[in-house]
Write a structure and sequence with these properties.
By secondary structure, this protein is mainly beta. Helix content is about 0%, strand content about 50%. It contains no helices and eleven strands. Strands 2, 4, 5, 6, 9, 10 and 11 form a seven-stranded mixed sheet that branches. A four-stranded antiparallel sheet has the order 1-3-8-7, with no helix packed on it. Strand 5 and strand 6 form a beta hairpin. The radius of gyration is 14 Å and the shape is globular. The N and C termini lie far apart (about 35 Å). The mean pLDDT is about 95.
């Protein structure tokens, strides 16, 4: 499984970005997907999940601002980020958990998001 993130960049507070994570190699619709981020000097933190069932989860610190969606026909999961704040500045990674679930997680290379005025 290969994952390629895109869509990061430098934006101002209050702006929006949409991150994409394109997967290849296997049956994407069966993958559980996740978005994580790591800010400088901080631990990785979970931003959101998209299960193969269609259920989604978003961390409290992004609820109301971010949404997560997937397009199985395009083998892609998205993270729509609205009302961005400086504290959202981080490298954002997507992760894939294909069946058999829990056996191995695949990671993308990350995409930088910088929110600054």
């Amino acid at each position: 499984v290969q994952l390629v993130e895109s869509g990061g960049g430098l934006v101002q507070p209050g702006d929006s970005l949409r991150l994409s994570c394109a997967a290849s190699g296997r049956t994407f619709s069966s993958f559980h997907m996740g978005w994580f981020r790591q800010a400088p000097g901080k631990e990785y933190e979970l931003v959101g999940r998209s299960w193969s069932s269609g259920r989604t989860y978003l961390a409290d610190f992004v609820k109301g601002r971010f949404t997560i969606a997937r397009d199985n026909a395009k083998n892609t999961v998205y993270l729509q980020m609205n009302i961005l704040k400086p504290e959202d500045t981080a490298v954002y990674f997507c992760a894939a958990d294909p069946p058999p679930y829990g056996s191995r997680t695949y990671w993308g290379q990350g995409t930088q998001v910088t929110v600054s005025s």
